[in-house]
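User: Please run a holo structure prediction.
Assistant: Happy to. Please share the sequence and the ligand.
User: Here you go; the ligand is zinc ion.
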Amino acid sequence: MPDLIPGVPPLAALLGRCPRCAKGKLFNGFLKLNKTCSACGLDLAFADADDGAAVFIMLIVGGLVVGAALTVEIKYEPPFWVHAVIFLPLILVLSLGALRLLKGLTTGLQYRYLGNPDSRRGRGPLH
Ligand SMILES: [Zn+2]
């Protein structure tokens, strides 16, 4: 088993890497998690982001895009189609990009602080 690196799990997972070894890929595709790490064999069944990442994205991206749309509307008063052309793709790109990042971060935080398989066996970064 590779050496454990304290503090790495959330950052490594944010970047799409295994929260234990920071070498194996976390995702199989765009948003689906691998079942195990290809480098260290960590069982990723503990990772369950549920709607946690989506809620933060709705709040953060929604606030940013609505604020930007209101600013554009107040300053320039463009026709409706301009809002649709600018802000609908922006919402899509920001939401999907942030979803992958926050799903990885959620997985890393779960590994670090909640019931990951290593900590249950007393080998985790906190033990
Ligand atoms: Zn790994």
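The chain has a mean pLDDT of 84.
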